[in-house]
Amino acid sequence: MSEIRNCNFRYECTKKWEDLMQTYDKNVRHCINCHSDVHYCRTQEELYEAMVHNYCVAVEIKRSPDDPIEIYVGDVAPPPYPNKK
What is the number of structural domains in the chain? Predict the structure, then answer.
């Protein structure tokens, strides 16, 4: 399982994962404010799949080695494309 790295949000939601409505899938919750499903991503591969489908996501992020793990919710920006010369 690969750790999530370099995750940049286009939009970081003020809602917490715990506040979102549970669904039939334990890895998906629903936001009643924006009417979007939020997909919990634990790996880089899951995050990439969510980005391909333009899903809102919840990811665990540790900003620095001394910080606790926090769950961030929002819309993830795709990685920048390298400049071709």
Answer: 1
